[in-house]
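Hey there, shall we discuss this one?
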Amino acid sequence: MEFNYSANPHIQFGPGKIDQLPKLARFYGDSLLLITGTESFQKSDHWPKLLKALEKKSIVIYQATVKTEPSPFIIDGIIRKFRDKNIDAVAAIGGGSVIDAGKAVSAMMTKKESIIEYLEGVGNRSHDGKKIPFIALPTTSGTGSEATKNAVISQPGENGFKKSLRHDKFVPDIAIVDPELTVDCPSKITAACGMDALTQLLESFASPGSSIMTDSLVEGALRILGDSLIRAAIKNPCDIDARTKLSYASYISGLTLANAGLGVVHGFASVIGGLFNIPHGVICGTLLSETIRQNVESLISMDPDSPALHKYARAACLLSPTHFSEDRVESSRYLVSLLTEWTEQLEIPGLGAYGVTHKDIHRIVSATGQKNNPIQLSVEKLSRILQARL
């Protein structure tokens, strides 16, 4: 037995943990750049309470807002505005895009160049990892960005891209995962983000890069995700038990993706997200069931002894405790039907709702990577996935 496992952040997990932010921020100094998303958090009861607590610790507060997925223009603008303020630490409170923005700002405060020069596949510079301390506080349960070493930066459009700023030292110094912060998250966002977390768990589980360490983490997260996602997104958004379990599953998905890698759903997402302004969670959520279908059927016909097929069968039993079968083909196909049912139940829209058409399929497929997918899918099969979710 052997495996490699990257470091994860110091974590404060549980309801009410946001109250630890002032003390933790003060450890780094007396000035803090707070990056938030839309106005929902600022309109919550948490905002005035947090500001008062920070002021009580004599912390000078600077604030920036990121309302969309971070672009080079947004990150460079924040850096220009606050570079000379002697910021001691950055804290990002929001969804995955806000966390990524905070991660990028923390990293780029030490650089004079535009972030675009350090993006993988776009720029030609390598970051040395020097940054200012960063604290992540997710308000959604989905991307797991609070546990990863990369910040995803997007520039949608005809010649757009969705690329990462990456370094081992970009893992947040502290992650404060407070499920109470996710209670106000709208149902549609809860659903899409939850499906993103599920995608990350399933893709890292079936990845050739998985290990006994990541597998054990995934199994524990899958065991609690299924029921909690439906409860939080549909039945009772204020169910703090469901929210807590979703927050945990999301955090674990960040750890496992960072250590085992992701499959073709995220290969699609990187390309589609660079061409169209579609939320990342929606892309993953809408493509998950059809991608697993193609993976399962390809494995059955071409590699029936693959460990991935066994893991898909295992995932079906973990997500649906009432299902049990020793036939891994039957269970793997049951997983596909379960994911299809959830996609419909959670009302995850198709790609066509955002302007993707049949004519876009070829260019998406031709640019989609399949690294860490359990089996290499043909162009025809990749096209079928997109066709089914237009």
